[in-house]
Specification:
The protein has 315 residues and is mainly alpha-helical. The chain is built from 12 helices and 5 strands.
Length: 315
């Protein structure tokens, strides 16, 4: 680590760790480095968030050193780290309708069609942008209504997806051209111009301040508004505490798929310009009875039309 230099681990004291924290916060690690990609460039800015995460990582390394008997105590313990910037921006329902207008306009321009599709699917799934951009056809299980991500931030992860997403994937499947759901230029590459296209799509619009993470956070917030539990929401968006990661799981919980249907359907309705009068999932007894009757009727091969007729007569 350049800020520590050639200091030996056993010579580090708490003052050294504090100095590292303050120097990174002040931007002393700011640098622009050319990468191996054509015209590629990595920009490191430092700042509060970077400082907090770096000292956290350093603390983990020093804990290993303690366990290995290299040092007796961890000098990073007890360091007061500033809170990373809390990302709590979410879209209102009115902003979702504006987003729908922006995406429809962008989709009319062939240059931004793929980027607009990616943005819509992030909004409908709550996935991280990299998970959608790099989504491969082998990971899209349309029959089971889920994405079986091989390498997410949390490792292998299975995510339930709603019908709007399944129907989009089914339509794309008929015109697929390679490994990726959103192909880019060159020989079977994932779409690679997303950041640039995102900026152009949202430039000079009421939503110029949002990021892909805002769409992910908004999906979780809508799910909460509709009455779904924290555990359900965590499983849908792939948080570590709720992600479905077992390689032995082939069929998702039906309730999880129903939750994905409800949330993605609600978000799609907002994107299409609808204004919902009901902002909580129906849990009244009559609605539950109707849903149960429809399920049982279908299970025994009966006519759903008869059930609906009975319900109308009962009403």
């Amino acid at each position: 680590m350049p800020l520590i230099g050639t200091r030996r681990v056993k010579d580090l004291v708490k003052a050294d760790i504090n100095k590292v924290l303050k120097d990174i916060m002040a931007g002393k690690t700011r640098v622009s480095v050319k990468t191996k990609k054509l015209r590629g460039k990595a920009i490191v800015r430092g700042g509060v968030g970077t400082a907090t995460r770096t000292v956290g990582l350093l603390g983990g390394i020093l804990t290993y050193a303690v366990d290995a008997g290299i040092i007796e105590t961890n000098p990073a313990h007890g360091i007061r780290k500033p809170k990373d910037r809390v990302r709590n921006r979410r879209l209102t329902e009115a902003e979702y309708r504006i987003l729908g207008q922006i995406l429809r306009k962008a989709a009319q321009d062939e240059r931004y069609k793929t980027a607009s599709d990616i943005i819509r699917q992030i909004a409908l799934t709550g996935c991280r942008r990299s998970e959608i951009i790099k989504l491969r056809w082998m990971e899209a299980d349309m029959e089971a209504s889920c994405l079986r991500l091989a390498d997410s931030k949390e490792g292998a992860s299975t995510r339930a997806i709603g019908l709007p997403v399944v129907e989009f994937l089914e339509a794309q499947w008929t015109v697929r051209t390679g490994t990726y759901v959103f192909p880019g230029q060159g020989d079977d590459n994932a779409f690679g111009s997303f950041p640039n296209h995102w900026e152009k799509i949202f430039h000079d619009t009421p939503l110029a301040d949002i990021t892909p993470h805002v769409l992910r956070h908004s999906f979780a917030s809508i799910a909460n508004d509709l009455g779904f539990t924290e555990v359900t929401i965590a499983a849908l968006v792939g948080h570590a505490k709720g992600s479905v990661t077992s390689k032995y799981i082939h069929t998702l919980d039906t309730a999880l798929i129903m939750a994905a249907d409800t949330i993605s359907g609600y978000v799609q309705g907002l994107l299409d310009g609808l204004e919902f009068k009901q902002t909580a999932y129906a849990l009244d007894r009559d609605s539950r009875k109707v849903a149960l009757a429809r399920f049982l009727c279908k299970a025994v091969g009966g006519s759903i039309a008869d059930v609906e007729q009975d319900n109308r007569l009962a009403a």
